[in-house]
Amino acid sequence: MKSHLQVAVIGGGVVGASVLYHLAKLGWPEVGLFERSELTAGSTWHAAGGMHTMNADPYVAKLQAYTIGLYKTLEQESGQSCGIHQTGGLLLASDPSRLDYIRAVHAKGKVLGLELELVDAAEAKRRLPIADVSDVLGALYDPLDGHVDPSGVTNAYAKAARSFGAEVYRHTPVEELTQNGDGSWNVVTPNGTVVAEHVVNCGGLWAREVGALVGHSVPILPMEHQYILTDEIPEVAGSPSEVIHCVDFKGESYLRQEGKGLLLGTYEAHGTPWSLNGTPKDFGHELLPSDLDRIIDRMEAAYRRYPCLAEAGIKKIVNGPFSFAGDGNPLLGPVPGYRNYWIAAGVMAGFSQGGGVGLSLAQWMIDGEPETSVLAMDVARYGDFANRRFTMLKVKENYGRRFSITFPNEELTAARPVKTTPVYPRLKQLGAVMGAQYGTEYALWFAPEGMAPVETTTFRRSNAFKPVAEECKAVRERAGIMEISVYGKHEIEGPDAAAFLDRIFANRLPAVGRIALTPMLSEKGRIVGDLTVARLAEDRFFVIGSGSAELYHQRWFHRHLPPAGVTSRAVTRQWVGFNLAGPQARQVLQKLTDEDLGGNAFPFLAMREMALGLVPARVGRISFTGELGYEIYCTPEYQNTLLELLLEAGKEVDARLIGSRALQSLRVEKGFGGWTREYTPANLPFEAGLGRFVKLDKGEFIGRAAAAAEKQAGPARKLVMLEIEARDADLWGDEPLLDGDRCVGFVTSGAYGHTVGKSLALGYLPAALAEPGRRFVTDSLGNALGATVLAEPPYDPSGARMRS
What we know:
- The protein has a domain at 4-83 and 148-220 and 327-379: FAD/NAD(P)-binding domain.
- Helix 2 packs across helix 5 and helix 2 (58-78) packs across helix 9.
- By secondary structure, it is α+β, with helices and mostly antiparallel strands.
- The protein is built from 19 helices and 37 strands.
């Protein structure tokens, strides 16, 4: 065993082997994998080995397509068969909502370059003769679906990695991890201690135990998962080609061929967590006791869907544990609060995602960032609210909904509420329909008197449409009040704070008492932040960003902090507040203060501390609605008082409470982009329309050279605004933009513009095609809709109203 490694990868399942392979192949050969037993021990060996491309997040879907495409290369590099069975697969839809779902997936597939095909029931029957399709309304066919041999794939990764110089240490459990002053790790095993510059937790079922070695509580939980293998079935044995994969949404099951029989699996509605308090050290190639009673209803549905099962005997029942995060996506990336400590765990769909996870993490470690956005998998999406109880409740919910539709306007209910602000009960009393972001409850919209505060889940316009229209009208004509406590907030201070922020922000820093909007860029010029920075004093700054990115941004700040002279801390919970916006917002706020709020006295992009009645507050002259507006922050003990002051002062102008659905409509009317949609680590600043906030002449800053190169060459694509010829459904994001039969771009956000009376969207197009007036076609639930590029936002394009 070597005494020194660049990276110690802990865990020998398919994910650890993939990370090892990609690190070695991309140029870090001094890497070693430490496996407590044999490769595949844990979850990998008993996995069904299915592979599919589609995922709710398009960037994850691209990585899944990469994984599937990698297997043939892996066989060539390793000489090891991966047992590839690329049969293709069907998703069956037996009710209108599921038909809408597969239509939406089909549209997203065009963006990803996938050759998905919508077929009718007769064609589904032709491709899968053993299925009863009498209730099927339609199906989606994916030619890339199939399955692989779990052991073959894992060993292929390991063999290929060794050919690139990597080491594999079997029967070498890691017992202790201690960090040295230079950031390296002592990896202590029974066979000796290795010093590694980096450590990656790929522990799978033991990821929690590996995390505990350094004090990291990993928010994953193993769940029991059962599938059955049948005896030989004549219809299968006699088939001229291998039976294709099938997911039956109605029956909530998946099926594929195994030998001359079938493999049938399901995710029961009330899943069974396994080993809540930790995975036994001696667990490995064992299975758990079977319990078919838990899935008998799903099996009965499968027998109706596939009548040939009725005469088939069960050869084997497989019940084994798999680890899940609360939303079903992996935990990936540098663990916040730790130096040179990484994770790739909770990869439930290991044979669809393992290659992409390994590639992304290797790029992140070697190059400083992955080549595409992995926000949906980033470990920083979970904060300290994701404790053991939260994780159990969310994992059980996700497991039980594996084949259920999550509608784009749906808010899942498990483990809620977690974090609430002081005004939460009052907002509920006033009709708020709540959502949750980063564990915090916030208002989506407000049900008027006489209407139940419950939203119908749908792909189309819901019962919230009219109430949201009224909220938008209040903001555009009078004043609206929206709680913004969920925004992520950071305080950065110290004698070197200005120099530090000047280096990580692309815009110039504001003067004291002023606000600036600024991108934060990676070394390659990609957008890692879209932030508001207010300068409270020469050496003290208040930085505001997306609430879901609080830990993500804090990790970035800490990564670049100098050894001394600057402190950075997240203060989201310490500062709560409201946005007050609308043409009469100044009139409302002026009633609460003696401060002069006139346009010259308190101009656009100013911030100051002032008393609002009895409430000490920070007030910023800024708004995301496109109207005259103020962001008002106070400490939590004052929030209820502040809300009542605003409501009382707003009575004269009939101000009303609004939620985030109204804000979505208002910001899209203005063409304002948002984090995770228009602005992600997959985007560059000039293509995203943020070039005016990038000051290349201010001096050196992170990403400057890349941004300068993008500006000089001209962006290859551009963020544009589109008018959509919608019917009863507006766009949500990830729909294609088609020029003839070619997919040339994609939608990032959509909403109905209640002020302008038009369905609108934002999206990216090739720069050469991003011409005002040019017409494209998009796909909404199987309907071809016109999408016309607008020259400017349809509402107040000059921005005069928010500067008034």
